Amino acid sequence: FYFRNKHRPFLLFVSLLHVHTPLITTEKFQGRSRHGLYGDNVEEMDWMVGKLLHVIDKEDLKNNTFIYFASDHGGFLEARRGNSQLGGWNGIYKGGKGMGGWEGGIRVPGIVRWPGVLPAGTVIDEPTSLMDIYPTVVQLAGGVVPQDRVVDGHTLLPLLRGTVQHSRHEFLFHYCGAFLHAVRWHQKDSGTVWKAHYATPVFQPEGSGACFRRGICPCSGDGVTRHDPPLLFNLSQDPSEANPLSADTEPL
């Protein structure tokens, strides 16, 4: 692929099966990690990404190749074999895969590399979306997104280059299946990010942060709790969504 296209623009999309159950790991990587089969899977994925980057570097394409590494959802908490957790870990964030509202199902890694254009070591703490990949790629290719419809994504390039300080996403809607579970408001004048939850999954067992008895959390019916008024969080101060705001504690 590289040898045919290295002298002209190319798009390479690699959709890895890794860190997703059933955790198919080749023999070479089984038992390599101190963190069981899931860790082996992470190490094999890391090796595969490294092989791709090595070819880009070796072919002297590093400075003019835009690379974006991300995931489509947070770790799958319910995946277990005995006492072994097979589905990852979401750190300080509540919830996981299949939950349309909690941060653990929505926040994903986002790593960009473009040495010829972007400085290393920059951290951008702004809400973006995987919907932004499409308009970003279109802009990189010199094209224009269709003008006859609403395109929900926004190009990432101004944010990455530092020509703007804030994401263009003022609102992001988070669905579980066809059901709206939460909405995020990125307040432009202050940069504060608020989130309102209209429905949240009923964790089983209670307080576990996941739906172990069901295997994965449902989106509707008796498996969710509806909130009216919605649960409101200040994600800028409370990214773990531990302290819902109320009119008593936050009159404003």
TrEMBL record:
Gene Ontology MF annotations: arylsulfatase activity; metal ion binding
Domain of life: Eukaryota
GO cellular component entries: endoplasmic reticulum
Keyword NAD: no
Keywords from the UniProt entry: Calcium, Hydrolase, Metal-binding, Signal
Cofactor: Ca(2+)
Stretch forming the signal peptide: 1-26
Every Sulfatase N-terminal domain range: 5-142
Family annotation (PANTHER family): ARYLSULFATASE D, ARYLSULFATASE FAMILY MEMBER
Record-stated family: Belongs to the sulfatase family.
Protein name per UniProt: ARSD Arylsulfatase
Species of the source: Mystacornis crossleyi
